[in-house]
Prior knowledge:
two-stranded antiparallel ribbon, 2 helices, 4-stranded antiparallel beta sheet, about 40% strand
Amino acid sequence: MSPILFADGQRKAENFLGAQVLAFDIDENLAIEEAIERLKRQATAGIVSTTRSHRKPKNGKVQDRFRVVMLLESFVKSAKDYRSTWESF
C-alpha cells in the first residue's frame, strides 16, 4: 500500500497521479529527535514511528531508523512538487 496514487497501480514516477500524504523512511543521518523538531518547526501534522530495525546494528552502525508520515496542506498533483516537498524535510 502506498500513500501515493499511481496510474495502473504501478509505482513509477511517470505514473504519479498525486498525494495528500508524505511518507518516508529514515535509516541514517537524522536522529529521531531532530525529525520531531523539524515537524514542530514546520507546524506540520505528522507521525514519527520507529521501525523494526530501530537502533539495531546494520552495516556496522547502530542508528535511529524510523518512518515519518506527514499530512500535506493540499493534494499534490506533480511528481516534481512531491519530491521537492520530501527533499525539503
